[in-house]
Amino acid sequence: MTKNSSELGHYKVAICSAAVYIQVVGQGNMNNCGPLQDFVRQQIEQGIQEFYFDLKSCKGFDSTFMGLLVGFRSNASSTDDSFDDWDDDFSESQSDLSSSSMRIYMINTDSAHRKLLEEVGIDNVVEISENQHPCPEVINLTKLNPTSSTAQQHLKRVVQAHRNLIQANKKNEKTFGSFLKMIKQELQKE
Q: In the chain, where are the structural domains located?
């Protein structure tokens, strides 16, 4: 029997004043990022600028999860999912994340989490703390429900996440460039 994506990983969330607390439980990956992306976008539209990602219960995360983190910072006010202007040249698409007022804090991380974040070069996009930060006792965490998306929506989310990683750090083009070209071809078939 195979496990569904929410059994492999899910997110619990709470809104505290002007900040959002997100607990990553299990895996943060391309198969369960839809509800996270939708939730964070809603909070950004409401004016929230601080997001705390608690990794104490996180067993790992993939490049799609990390690319969404970059996207939250770089496109805080954008919800454009258009790929009409997509090309394969990232030479002039380096994101300037220093001007973003949004802050993403990765708390209760371990050395494996830090290594993953550093390997793709987004340790300058998120603030990482290995110190133990207990969940504030005054908040009630609510599990994000899985959302449905079409195969094309899912592929677009994966593409955008990886484009975000390349825009945040040029060295990621070597790692993810071929992967993106393959997905682009898949999207063009549909």
A: 5-189
Considering the entire predicted model, what is its pTM? Answer: 0.85
Task: Give the C-alpha separation, 113 to 97, whole Å.
Answer: 21
Q: What is the pLDDT of residues 64-96, one digit of tens each?
A: 999 999 999 886 534 444 444 445 554 444 455
Residue 154's closest CA among 5, 1, 2? 5
CA torsion through residues 180, 6, 4, 42, sign: negative
CA angle 56, 154, 12 (to 5 degrees): 25
d(CA 158, CA 109): 24
What are the residues whose beta carbons fall under 8 Å from the beta carbon of 111, sequence distance 6 or more? Answer: 130
Q: Which residues are CB-contacts of 22 (< 8 A; sequence separation ≥ 6)?
A: 11, 12, 13, 36, 40, 51, 52, 53, 54
Name the class of domain 5-189.
alpha beta
Give the residue among 21, 28, 174 at the shortest CA–CA distance from 112. 28
- Give the single-character DSSP code of 66: H
What CA–CA distances, in Å, run from 80 to 21, 77, 83, 84?
Answer: 25, 9, 9, 11
